[in-house]
């Protein structure tokens, strides 16, 4: 039944995503949703290393920028076709992720996060200062739009469906990962390094693997970002984008598949609707986020699962109590019947007399 409910919920979301352009009457709305899909794809990757493996990577937006700049540099400076450059965006992040993971994952807890924060800032400075490669503060302009069989994704509706398709593909891949033996290995590491190592799990190898998979998602999200916006600036590598993705995980529910997706889609629209407050919108949004973290530490999806668990436990307790009551009643009736038919019982002897 739970699997049926899960499939039904994903099917409803898929249908809503398909029909959204039919109800969105402005290109601006499609652009906002397309950007939200791109950052949702990156957030799903961050959730793998943080929510499922328990390692908080603060350089995640830097890897997203690596993927984006790989596409921008190859297409603009070297006239490489977009899809070849897009394929390279994930592979470059995979290689960078291996070496950064080998170095950083020797540390644990806050030390790992501080190290990756430094890595993210180094990536930001490298992109900003290396004018000969990244164009620096001059930005990369004129990135070609993705095309497939002559269909160009330079307009809002085709671009929306392109980002939506990659988000669906990313969710499907991540679903396979987290529900496999590898995903359970990641969760065992998150729950206890010592316990995981005691049952034979190679901590370093699996942590590095989780790190590499997570930054591949960031790299491909960056490649989509480059193709969607068609210009790049160093700000993409800023740590504030990592904090945005962290906020999406906290709002939706860290360590779940649906939670980061929910947060990445809800929070951008909430900030859009608070734009009338201009710079004061964060005065409203900030306390709301603080209250959410205090009273709903597991996010919106965590709240749903907690309520569902309580209902299941209540139903189980009620059924067990009913079963115990029925067993007691049956036992009492059986004893009464035995007493009435036992010839050695005093009441029976009196009746015969």
Automatic annotation (TrEMBL):
Bias (Low complexity) ranges: 317-341
Designated name of the protein: Branched-chain amino acid ABC transporter permease
Transmembrane portions of the chain: 7-24, 30-49, 56-76, 82-103, 110-127, 159-178, 208-228, 248-270, 282-306
A Pfam family annotated for this UniProt entry: BPD_transp_2
A GO CC annotation given for this chain: plasma membrane
Residue segments, region Disordered: 317-353
Keyword tags: Cell membrane, Membrane, Transmembrane, Transmembrane helix
Topology of this chain in the membrane: Multi-pass membrane protein
InterPro entries per record: ABC_transp_permease, LivM-like
Entry's localization field: Cell membrane
Gene Ontology MF term list: branched-chain amino acid transmembrane transporter activity
Organism: Pararobbsia silviterrae
UniProt KW Lipid biosynthesis keyword: no
Membrane among keywords: yes
Main location: membrane
């Amino acid at each position: 039944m739970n699997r049926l409910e899960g499939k039904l919920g994903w099917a409803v979301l898929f249908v809503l995503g398909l029909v959204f352009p039919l109800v969105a009457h402005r290109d601006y709305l499609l652009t906002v949703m397309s950007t939200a899909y791109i950052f949702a794809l990156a957030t799903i990757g961050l959730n793998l290393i943080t929510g499922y493996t328990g390692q908080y990577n603060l350089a995640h937006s830097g890897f997203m920028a690596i993927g984006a700049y790989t596409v921008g540099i190859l297409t603009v400076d070297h006239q490489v076709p977009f899809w070849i450059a897009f394929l390279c965006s994930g592979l470059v992040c995979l290689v960078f992720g291996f070496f950064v993971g080998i170095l950083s994952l020797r540390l644990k807890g806050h030390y790992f996060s501080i190290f990756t924060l430094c890595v993210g800032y180094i990536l930001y400075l490298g992109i900003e200062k290396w004018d000969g490669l990244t164009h620096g503060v001059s930005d990369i302009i004129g990135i070609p739009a993705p095309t497939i069989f002559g269909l160009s994704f330079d307009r809002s509706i085709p671009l929306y469906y392109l980002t939506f398709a990659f988000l669906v593909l990313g969710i499907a891949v991540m679903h396979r990962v987290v529900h496999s033996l590898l995903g359970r290995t990641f969760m065992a590491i998150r729950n206890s390094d010592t316990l995981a190592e005691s049952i034979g799990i190679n901590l370093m190898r699996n942590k590095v693997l989780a790190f590499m998979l997570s930054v591949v998602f960031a790299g491909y999200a960056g490649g989509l970002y480059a193709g969607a916006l068609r210009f790049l600036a160093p700000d993409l590598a800023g740590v504030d984008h990592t904090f945005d993705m962290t906020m999406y995980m906290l709002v939706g529910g860290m360590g779940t598949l649906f939670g980061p997706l929910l947060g990445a889609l809800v929070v951008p629209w909430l900030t859009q609707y608070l734009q009338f407050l201009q710079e004061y919108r964060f005065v409203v949004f900030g306390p709301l986020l603080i209250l959410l973290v205090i009273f709903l530490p597991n996010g919106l999806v965590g709240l749903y699962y907690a309520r569902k668990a309580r209902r299941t436990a209540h139903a189980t307790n009620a059924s067990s109590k009913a079963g115990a009551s029925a067993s007691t009643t049956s036992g009492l009736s059986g004893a009464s019947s035995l007493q009435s038919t036992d010839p050695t019982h005093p009441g029976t002897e009196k009746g015969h007399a």
